[in-house]
């Protein structure tokens, strides 16, 4: 009896030790794979998005799946990189021009219009701030040195974060190209969902695919459309450093902040430097452009969705917060 108890205790101790080692190994593997979790999730989503194009292309190419996947991957990567290169070149040239103008002392801020004083609440302090910039730029920058440094650091952190996210997205596109060809990966995902959801697996898969398509149309599609509208206004209204502002509009639109912050600054600039009628016309344009996502999102986000638009919207906002 005593030997039996000792044997049971020994087996229990061995089982506990096995569980501890399993948890340690699983935890170590999870930590090792943690940087790749988000790219893999994005790759799965992108593979679902690209699949109709992949299916169509492989039929044209007479069943050549690998070639179809390569063509889609190269095209998507090219479409992502080329606009970014163009925007970065434009933004870099704007920054260099700004830097050279500042160093040579030729950078001048036009004096604000006297009518700004009559604006409610912000009129007087805004006029004084713009007037100080126009009269003595260097002294004004030194005066607001701490605030400018803090804002610059936040902007640099945001740019660095966006750059890393962009590289992760490129990696996700490449992985998605592999997933499109790999039937074993698709079967593994389907089996995993069926094991968890049981009889509801097919319904969940259909709803998930439909929701992903709607989110892509409603978020990325709206961000691109809104940025194109903004770019048109910024360039044709003659706003300085339009390339920088266009890039910021794209980032803000994807992050669900919208270009309203940029538009407020642009409108103030036009009223302080340009003709009032000219400024009013462009103000109407930028107000409509800034609010256009409120019309486009309901049209694209909820159209044909199998789940309520509120659920999709909460998911999008939750993802942004995360």
Low-confidence regions: none
* Major sheet summary line: none
- Supply Rg: 27 Å
Cα distance spanning the termini? 57 Å
Helix % is over 70%
Category from helices, strands and their pairing: mainly alpha
The percent range for strand residues is: under 5%
What is the string of SSEs from the N terminus onward? HHHHHHHHHHHH
Number of strand segments: 0
Estimate the mean pLDDT confidence: 76
Which shape, going by the Cα principal axes?
elongated
**Number of H- or I-type helical stretches:** 12
Distinctive features:
single chain, 322 residues, mainly alpha, 12 helices
Q: What topology emerges from the helices and strands here?
A:
Blueprint lengths: L1 H59 L4 H40 L18 H13 L1 H7 L1 H37 L1 H15 L3 H36 L5 H13 L5 H14 L2 H16 L1 H9 L7 H13 L1
Helix pairs in contact: 1-2, 1-5, 2-5, 2-8, 3-4, 6-7, 7-8, 7-10, 7-11, 9-10
Note down, in words, how this protein is organized:
By secondary structure, the protein is mainly alpha-helical. The chain is built from twelve helices and no strands. The model has no long low-confidence stretch (mean pLDDT 76).
């Amino acid at each position: 009896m005593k030997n039996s108890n000792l044997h049971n205790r020994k087996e229990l101790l061995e089982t506990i030790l096995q569980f501890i080692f399993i948890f340690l190994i699983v935890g170590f593997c999870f930590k090792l794979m943690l940087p790749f979790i988000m790219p893999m999730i994005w790759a799965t989503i992108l593979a679902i998005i690209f699949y109709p194009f992949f299916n169509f292309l492989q039929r044209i190419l007479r069943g050549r799946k690998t070639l179809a996947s390569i063509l889609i991957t190269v095209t998507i990567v090219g479409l992502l990189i080329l606009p970014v290169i163009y925007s970065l070149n434009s933004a870099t040239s704007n920054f260099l021009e700004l830097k050279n103008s500042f160093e040579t002392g030729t950078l001048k801020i036009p004096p604000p219009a006297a009518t700004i004083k009559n604006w409610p609440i912000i009129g007087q302090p805004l006029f004084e701030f713009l007037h100080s910039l126009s009269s003595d730029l260097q002294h004004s920058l030194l005066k607001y040195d701490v605030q400018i440094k803090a804002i610059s650091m936040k902007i640099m952190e945001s740019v660095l974060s966006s750059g890393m996210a962009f590289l992760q997205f490129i990696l996700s596109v490449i992985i998605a190209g592999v997933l499109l060809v790999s039937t074993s990966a698709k079967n593994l995902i389907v089996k995993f969902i069926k094991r968890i959801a049981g009889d509801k697996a097919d319904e969940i898969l259909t709803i998930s695919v439909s929701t992903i398509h709607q989110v892509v149309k409603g978020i990325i599609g709206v961000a691109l459309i809104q940025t194109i509208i903004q770019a048109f206004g910024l360039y044709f209204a003659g706003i300085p450093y339009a390339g920088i502002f266009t890039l910021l509009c794209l980032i803000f639109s994807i992050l669900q902040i919208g270009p309203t912050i940029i538009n407020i600054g642009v409108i103030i600039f036009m009223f302080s430097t340009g003709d009032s009628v000219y400024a009013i016309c462009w103000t109407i344009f930028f107000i409509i452009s800034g609010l256009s996502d409120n019309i486009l999102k309901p049209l694209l986000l909820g159209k044909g969705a199998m789940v309520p638009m509120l659920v999709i919207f909460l998911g999008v906002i939750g993802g942004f917060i995360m």
